[in-house]
Amino acid sequence: MRPVRTAFAGALLGTLVLAGCGQTGTTATPSATTAPAAPAAESFPVTVEAGNGKLTLTKKPERIVSLSATHTETLFAIGAGPQVVAVDDQSNHPPEAPKTDLSGLKPNVEAIVAKKPDLVVLSDDLDQVVAELGKVNVPVLLQPAATDIDDAYEEIAELGAATGNKAKADQLVADMKAAMDKLAAEAPKDKKLTYYHELDQTPYAATSKTFIGQIYAMFGLTNIADKAPDAAGGYPKLSAEFVAQADPDLIFLADVKCCQQNKDALAKRPGWKNLSAIENDRVILLDDDVASRWGPRIVELAETIGAAVSKAGAS
Q1: How far apart, in whole angstroms, are the C-alpha atoms of residue 64 and residue 68?
Q2: Residue 136 and residue 107: Cα distance in Å, rounded?
Q3: Are 79 and 152 in contact (CB under 8 A)?
Q4: How many Cβ atoms are within 10 Å of 149's Cβ, its own excluded?
Q5: Given 3.40.50.1980, 3.40.190.10, 2.120.10.30, 3.40.50.20, which CATH number is that of 6-24+38-179?
Q6: Helix, strand or coil, per DSSP, at residue 250
Q7: What is the pLDDT of residues 156-201, one digit of tens each?
Q8: Domain positions in the chain
Q9: How far out from the chain centre does Cα 202 lie?
Q10: ∠309-311-313 over CA atoms, to 5°?
Q11: Which residue intervals of 43-165 are DSSP H helices?
């Protein structure tokens, strides 16, 4: 992302094409009369196919370095936290993630290698870090920013397979799917509400075909950014006049912590004071991190959106 906030832009305005997701490994099928075998993902070697092609791990990794805030969250959510020895400086959740000064935006190969990793997980191949780590025989799993919710689920499953935590990862995905389906089913969709999702105060927005836009679509919302002149790229830069003319029913701000944006700040923008969302107190303050990552906490984001939609639908 480079005109947008670093965390979200680097993740979602960069290359969003996944090379393909899936995993293979040694499996065992328990019979009805014998005790269940160990979970398939606990058996190694295991091969995972992601953004940098097929990666075969001969044994369960015990020294994982994560250079992606999203993947750090996932690793801890699937029970791989004890295997993580270092994370990048943007990984601030969960609190127990080991703090380091490693940069995911300007990766330093020597600093990464100094952590003696047996697996490095990242979401961007910046400065050809994948190839550079390959030269020193460090296994790398590249999982680019998810392009849709199914991609997010697949990446969680792949991390589970790669780290020997397949059962927990599969359960997490199942729980997430159930929660998301429930939230979508409960949302009132007959109000035909419009919305604006702000990435930063420039203002940059996200269209319906982006990952974040697809989450909003679950709730039957209409995205004003879809009609922006440069909407084709997914992240158009809107003018203040465009937003004022569209007059969205709901405004979601993903630039709260970074840029101190709120309803009062919006009201000071030219032509925005009388926007419906401001007058009706429908400006929703999102957690910047939750709104810019595609891991386990997308359920929290969906809960916030769902609550706002339900409140607006009831009024």
Answers
A1: 12
A2: 15
A3: no
A4: 18
A5: 3.40.50.1980
A6: strand
A7: 999 999 999 999 999 999 999 999 999 999 988 777 899 999 999 9
A8: 6-24+38-179, 187-314
A9: 22
A10: 65
A11: 69-77, 109-113, 129-135, 149-163
Place of tokens 């370095």: 65
294 closest CA partner among 111, 71, 99:
71
12, amino acid identity: L
- The class that CATH gives domain 187-314 is alpha beta
Tokens of 306: 């769902």
Residue whose tokens read 């940069």: 103
Place of tokens 């702000």: 198
Element (H, E) at 50: strand 46-50
What's the burial of 100, exposed, middle or buried (CB within 10 Å: 0-12/13-18/19+)? middle
What's the pTM value of the predicted model, to 2 decimals?
0.85
Rounded distance, CA 86 to CA 84, Å?
6
Report how far Cα 217 is from the mean position of its chain's Cα atoms: 16
